[in-house]
Please model this.
Amino acid sequence: MIQLFQGIDDEGLKRLAQCMRMRITNFQSGEQIAQLGTIIEKVGILLEGTAHIEMSDADGTCTRVQSLLSGDVFGELFFLPHEDRFCVVEADTPCRVMFLDWKHVIRPCPQSCDPHGRLIANLFQLAAEKTRQLSAYTDILSQRTMRQKLLTYFSTLSRETGSRTITLPMSLAALSEYLCVDRSAMMRELKSMRQEGILEADRRVITLKKL
Amino acid sequence: MIQLFQGIDDEGLKRLAQCMRMRITNFQSGEQIAQLGTIIEKVGILLEGTAHIEMSDADGTCTRVQSLLSGDVFGELFFLPHEDRFCVVEADTPCRVMFLDWKHVIRPCPQSCDPHGRLIANLFQLAAEKTRQLSAYTDILSQRTMRQKLLTYFSTLSRETGSRTITLPMSLAALSEYLCVDRSAMMRELKSMRQEGILEADRRVITLKKL
DNA sequence: ACAGAACTGTGGGAAATGCAACAGCATTGG
DNA sequence: CCAATGCTGTTGCATTTCCCACAGTTCTGT
Model:
């Protein structure tokens, strides 16, 4: 199920395809799907496969800044790169990608078709979700101590799943990068949190004991 | 000049006002302008005055998470609060605020009027700008050392103004909070950066000497 | 089944950062 | 003009975090 097309039936999709000149392209693993500039030009929807956005720093180092899964929407709307940086979307596995022209999206079609309005609403919904994720992330990073970073992240996960026991969606090594802290220091911190009875931790499975 | 209405003339504004049931309300200092829920309901535009968004934490502490100036747009689209948090917009000075109903914004009017499309495009533009700001901020916070945080922030400012000499838009004390570091530690770091010839710093005026 | 790679867990020592406290300067409002 | 307040700049000391190194485990592809 693709969120972007939620509430739009096949009939509507066909009309939309005409309205906004949809085109679908296939990419192989490692192939470049798009480059992101500083103005909004295109909207991409990953129909199948996995990909990621990577950013070249001024000094040449590449950083993977975002992972994209099936159904994800990407483009300048959702990730406007900084001016002096080079930003590309690259396929991790074979991908099937749909592109829309931005200018056709925002220009309501003459018939003012219903699916079009729906699509725009969905796009906004996705944009809002994006900012929510980003602000949740800054919420974590703005914590001063590592313990607070960890607890902020864990309680977000716990809230989302509705359970005190959570399974991390990434390796502990990746978690340390996500939190922007040293891995060994994080292990040490987890250890002392365990000793203080704040949580139980066995590899990726964490159980929060106190609030 | 209000960005949201860029490219729309008075004639168009009048039509829009009908289309989407614009209404304008005045607020006094300290008055609550709106509460932000978890679904998109309204779009607010601050026409005059200054305000801020504050978030009540689970433990009751209030944090000012965003300042709003004349022309700023707020609402769930731009700031979706976390589920268990209570989020309000409050006036700092007397404010004049315009509200639009979200459902009328995304529903293209029967006549498919041109200003409507323009408004939607502007809204997207603003949303994109918001995510850009947020990701610039995470870019800073994700730096591991204070020096890198400072340099990342300074070079962003420098890039924006196109000059190597920048004037901080806030006090040094506020800057330390923005960067989520200790103020005295930051002063110390600025001092050693000055001594190493990386920059010149006199109060809020900073000159970058090396890249 | 095996080799290689990635991940987890631990520790010592170095470096960075935070905390607390204080003094001088600038700004503001009566 | 003065007092009060907030901002800047500095320091000693405690703590946290980082860096590096190593060992055991799990995972992965052949």
